[in-house]
Amino acid sequence: MKRMIVDFDKDKKDDVITVIYQSEYELHSAKKYVIIYLSSKNKTFSIDFDLFNGVFVIPLRYKNDVLDFLVYQEGTGVYGHGLKLRFNQKVKEIQLIGYDYSYRTPGGHCNKTYNLLTGNYTVTNDFYNIQTGKTEIENFKGYKKPAGKILINMFSNKLFEDLSSVGKEFERD
Q1: What integer pLDDT is reported at residue 155 of this predicted model?
Q2: Among candidates 87, 145, 80, which has minimal Cα distance to 116?
């Protein structure tokens, strides 16, 4: 993927954001990372796709000071994890401000979006209704107060397991 050169930390100097992978392996078995170089800290941060069992990434996007990207797992469930990151000027760290989680279900698809700044989340299920013979969509909204700021150095499998369970009561089996 092409590098992105942006002023992510707002210090009026270029920062570099890109996805890298080990070239000596096949593409979907290679280890992959999002790499963020911050000029203000003269430091490189990375997000390991292994946190999501991820093998595919949708190209990075940067808009309104937010970096977002999607990581998909390989397999039939097509589990997707979307991250929205912003540099927090107060604590001078990269913060997760939004998390999306989606997957296929036996009868359709589930998509969840969680805003970690407001605590609001939505769950959207599309499914085939056998009685009507049509695909239907149902939306649910909820609120779960975030436990605090989630900074990039706090990323773990457990964290993303917990985030993906927000709104679980509205998911279809």
Answers
A1: 96
A2: 145
